[in-house]
Specification:
The structure holds 2 protein chains of 2 kinds. By secondary structure, chain A is mainly α. Helices cover 56% and strands 2% of the residues of chain A.
Chain lengths: 521, 449
């Protein structure tokens, strides 16, 4: 306790300590002593003990005496207590925010999404709200910061969506709570003091702003970090990957850990000018060739020659020397080589369009190997022509969507709807988890209606209901009335189909309002 | 509608958690038709499981609710859902003339209110049986005297043994004197005794706190011995503490204080209405009012048993003109709203003492009038919240620091609101720690419960 600044005759603390000690022990063992001293408090207490007109007659009971003294002293203490001065200065205040806050109604929407209030029990709506607010250049109201930051701590995958909307106030607040260190202003010095997940998040954030600085951070502690972390950090370099990272990645090919080597190979394979890809090109030179057949047909066919041997340089480049199921050992080597080569190389070399090369490959005995290798290669090096050609071969496979460059995916889905059976288009659309354009929305709505009418017992179909749910999350909310019109009305009340339609329309209304409120002043 | 209810406040009106959940489900536009509002009311038709849609309506003044559904809960899920819709999507309600069924209900309510205003006048004409009343009062007085004598013996006994022995005592030790006090018709004292075991478990420094509580109880007993020599407000305060209830109708006839009252803070707690484990949890709503020109604070209490709705007439964050009647006490705090003079408007900021020194002086003055004051309404301006270790505190411009209650759970929200700068705060001060109930910024008021 701090030293009292009161004169001893007025300070009640020592007296209170004595009284408390006496009470603990019990008056049977230690009767209370009359207080000494000449301050007003002590005089009053003595009077209370012996009897005084103001305080009443003396009690004959030491317990009652103790209680009287305790009552007077405790009240005296309580009434005279002043909050103490604090020695430490206040922490620095937060700088003012430049971004405007979103409107009151939008803030209430956010509160209802986070708190599960209102009709928005769908957790997917939160990322959508955050993205819309970030696009509109708004920040969230101060009262919601704590709840949103807690959500982010519980689910770090939301962190990139949350960070743009918390504003300076949010960063200032996060700096004071260890649970929210992921939201603090970016501080590269924290690299050396943080733990695994925090360092990974720091790296991701820094890599988005300054790729070179991020790479240098990784290199600075490379030798001391454990293998699991090294692999994760290397994986984070995927964002903003460029040739400037190539020397570091090339050196990682000699790392002790297999996982690190694998990650380095996967990254280098995405850089067409890297030494690894050049080496693979050299190896593939002799593997694929076009030959023209004999007269009179002069049909062109693709000749595949498997690599003869696997030398240490090839092992270093990740061409495994174990046989793979269904392909065989040397087939595996060819597959590994082809995966690293941009497919556009083949179109250039053979001067043929992708679709034709795929058709030629389909005629050989190595059809599956080549197809698989080219899909993987297209994933590393997104190419519109090859992407569409591969998708055309297996139209309903959602996994092939991400080999297309991002901007082309929706167009490809719409094309699929127009040119292929509707089931293929639906499969792709349901896997496309981003806000849909109105064109795609209309196509999906029509397909859903047709699907419903074609089913023998549509009301109970689980897949149909799931599709309706996905529809609600991603379709254009402004087409709410069209959706209400196109989708068949439920026949029985309380059925699962009716609930699905109700939820859909509620969700669409909510999303419509969400966008309207965020745009509003 | 000038005062906006937030969805959280609306859901707070629900009688229980399942009703709140059902209300959320009902608050979707698809189910409603014929939505409309006027200055006094809002209404709509809800499609439920019956063939005819239910008619739900809200009188916006009080607010009061009515619905044609068969549920016995009030407010039912349809009216709460309607209210939520009104708060979230007011644009969907057309401003039209009230339909017949709404106008009829509002008229009935008005007539009933007028009749209730006349009833106290009629009641007075009925002569109470004064002889029987006096006899009952005398009986109660005797019982209370006996109960107090018992309590005094128990207290002295405890001090003789010593407080150190308290940690080994079973709960029965505290429950027996409390039960005896209930039998002696002194339920207020029984409640005070029931709080003592909690003090023993309150952590470091519990010994001093327990001694203080016991000493205050003893002071109450000594004061009651001399009650005839005390002035009437002190007498009334003592009687209330012991457990005599105030006749609210008689109270309403007393002179009232007219002012513009700001509802600065509100909290709802659950308390046991009797022995722990044997009695149901009662909800207690404490609404703190602050008079704009008088600078006086007032506390309005409302109670609700499980399943019953709480009174919704005092919305935290609103202000209105009214006449309040205080319960007689040495330091007047508890009050009743006698007559409301204006509709509520939103609160823009908080009043308060300029610094903690002035606030402490006010507390000391209050203690001098009423040593048994449990919760002092503390409104202070220009304090900055900060984190002190694991706990929260606020510091005024002079550098004095006040710790906040351990049970305060919105510390991060408070810190976010302040951004490291001073703001205004209102809360309940118990002499050791402050429990914040609301914060005020220029032109804004935020609840913290």
């Amino acid at each position: 306790m701090p030293a009292s600044s009161l004169p001893p005759s007025s300070d009640p603390e020592p007296l209170w300590q004595e009284l408390t000690a006496a009470a603990l022990v019990g008056v049977e063992r230690q009767p209370p002593a009359a207080p000494e001293g000449d301050g007003p408090l002590a005089s009053f207490l003595r009077a209370a003990l012996v009897g005084h007109p103001a305080t009443g007659p003396a009690t004959t009971d030491p317990a009652a005496d103790l209680l009287r003294l305790a009552a007077a002293v405790s009240l005296y203490r309580r009434a005279g207590r002043l909050p103490p001065h604090s020695a430490a200065p206040l922490p620095p205040a937060c700088p003012p925010d430049e971004r405007p806050a979103c409107s009151l109604a939008a803030g209430q929407h956010l509160a209802s999404i986070i708190g599960g209030l209102g009709p928005s029990q769908w957790p997917e709506v939160l990322p959508e709200w955050l993205a819309a607010a970030a696009r509109a250049g708004r920040r969230i109201p101060e009262m919601q910061l704590a709840a949103l930051l807690e959500r982010g701590s519980a689910d770090l995958s939301l962190a990139p969506a949350i960070l743009p909307v918390i504003g300076r106030r949010g960063e200032w607040l996060a700096a004071q709570n260890p649970r929210w260190e992921w939201a603090r202003p970016l501080d590269p010095a924290a690299w050396h003091t943080g733990r695994g997940p925090a360092r990974r998040l720091l790296l991701q954030r820094l890599r988005a702003i300054d790729p070179a600085a991020a790479r240098e951070l990784v290199a600075s502690t490379w030798k001391e970090d454990p293998a699991v972390e090294r692999a994760a950090f290397l994986g984070a370099l995927q964002v903003g990957l460029s040739m400037a990272d190539e020397p570091f990645l090339e050196s990682a090919l000699d790392d002790r850990s297999k996982e690190v080597r694998r990650t380095a190979i996967d990254l280098l394979a995405c850089l067409p000018a890297s030494r690894l890809v050049q080496r693979m090109l050299a190896r593939a030179e002799s593997c694929l060739a076009l030959e023209t057949g004999r007269w009179p047909l002069r049909r062109v066919h693709l000749v595949v020659t498997l690599p003869a041997a696997c030398d240490p340089a090839m092992v270093r480049d990740g061409i495994a020397s174990h046989p793979q199921p269904g392909i065989g050992e040397r087939g595996g080597w060819l597959s590994a080589i082809l995966r690293a080569i941009p497919p556009a190389h083949w179109s250039r070399k053979f001067a043929k369009p992708a679709a034709e090369l795929l058709a030629l490959a389909a005629a050989t005995e190595w059809r599956d190997l080549l197809h698989g290798a080219w899909v993987a290669a297209a994933r590393c090096h997104p190419d519109p022509e090859w992407g569409l050609a591969l998708l055309a071969l297996a139209p309903g496979s959602p996994q092939l969507l991400d080999i297309l460059p991002a901007g082309q995916r929706e167009a490809a889905i719409i094309d699929t709807f127009k040119s292929r059976p509707p089931a293929d288009g639906m499969a792709l659309a349901l896997a496309f988890q981003q806000p849909w354009s109105s064109a795609l929305t209309r196509l999906v709505l029509q397909r859903l209606r047709a699907w419903y009418l074609a089913l023998p017992s549509p009301q109970g179909d689980y897949h149909l209901r799931q599709s309706v749910r996905i529809l609600g999350l991603y379709m254009d909310p402004n087409l709410l009335s069209e959706a209400a019109g196109l989708l068949p009305a439920p026949a029985e009340k309380g059925s699962a189909w009716e609930q699905a339609i109700q939820s859909l329309l509620d969700l669409l209304t909510f999303r419509q309002q969400l966008y309207k409120e965020i745009q509003a002043q | 509608m000038t005062v906006t209810w937030t969805p959280e406040q609306i859901l707070g009106l629900a009688p229980d958690a399942s009703a709140a959940k059902a209300a959320k489900e009902q608050a979707v536009l698809r189910r409603w038709s014929g939505l409309g509002h006027s200055a006094a009311a809002a209404w709509g038709l809800c499609q439920g499981s019956a063939k005819e849609p239910y008619r739900a309506q809200i009188d916006l003044g009080e607010p009061a609710f009515r619905c044609t559904c068969p549920s016995r809960k009030l407010p039912c899920k349809h009216t709460l859902g309607l209210f939520l819709l009104l708060a979230n999507q007011p644009a969907e309600f057309r401003a039209t003339a009230e339909p017949a069924w709404v106008a009829e209900w509002l008229e009935q309510r008005k007539q009933r209110a007028e009749a209730a205003a006349e009833r106290p006048a009629k009641k007075e004409r009925k002569e109470p049986d004064s002889a029987a009343q006096a006899k009952r009062a005398a009986q109660r007085e005797t019982r209370v005297q006996e109960g107090l004598a018992d309590l005094e013996l128990w207290l002295k006994d405890l001090l003789r043994q010593g407080l150190a022995a308290v940690v080994t005592l079973p709960p029965r030790y505290w429950e027996t004197p409390a039960a005896r006090l209930v039998d002696a018709q002194a339920p207020g004292l029984a409640r005070l005794v029931r709080e003592l075991p909690g003090v023993c478990l309150s952590g470091e420094g519990w010994q001093g706190r327990l001694l203080e509580r016991l000493a205050r109880l003893y002071l109450l007993l000594e004061a009651y011995r001399r009650i005839d020599r005390l002035p009437p407000p002190e007498q009334a305060g003592l009687r209330t503490l012991i457990g005599w209830t105030q006749n609210q109708d008689a109270l309403l006839a007393e002179p009232s204080v007219t002012d513009r009252w700001l509802v600065v803070g509100q909290r709802v707690d659950e308390e046991h209405s009797g022995p722990v484990g044997q009695s149901p949890l009662m909800r207690v709503q404490r609404s703190w009012l602050w008079g704009e020109s008088t600078g006086q604070a007032a506390l309005c209490l409302h109670f609700a048993m499980p399943g019953q709705p709480l009174d919704a007439s005092l919305l935290a964050g609103s202000c209105f003109e009214a006449e309040l009647v205080y319960f007689p006490a040495a330091f007047p705090l508890r009050a009743l709203v006698k007559v409301r003079r204006s509709p509520p408007t939103p609160l823009a900021g908080l009043p308060g003492y300029p610094d903690l020194h002035t606030a402490s002086a006010a507390y000391a003055a209050a203690l001098a009038s009423d040593p048994w004051l449990a919760a002092f309404p503390l409104a202070v301006q220009n304090v900055t919240p900060l984190r002190a270790g694991e706990d929260w505190a606020v510091q005024d411009l002079a550098g004095r620091q006040l710790p906040l209650a351990a049970r305060f759970s919105r510390g991060w929200e408070l810190l976010a609101l302040s951004g490291g700068r001073p703001l205004d705060l209102f809360g309940e001060w118990d002499g050791e720690r402050l429990l914040p109930l609301s914060a005020g910024l220029p032109c804004a008021w935020y609840p913290l419960t």
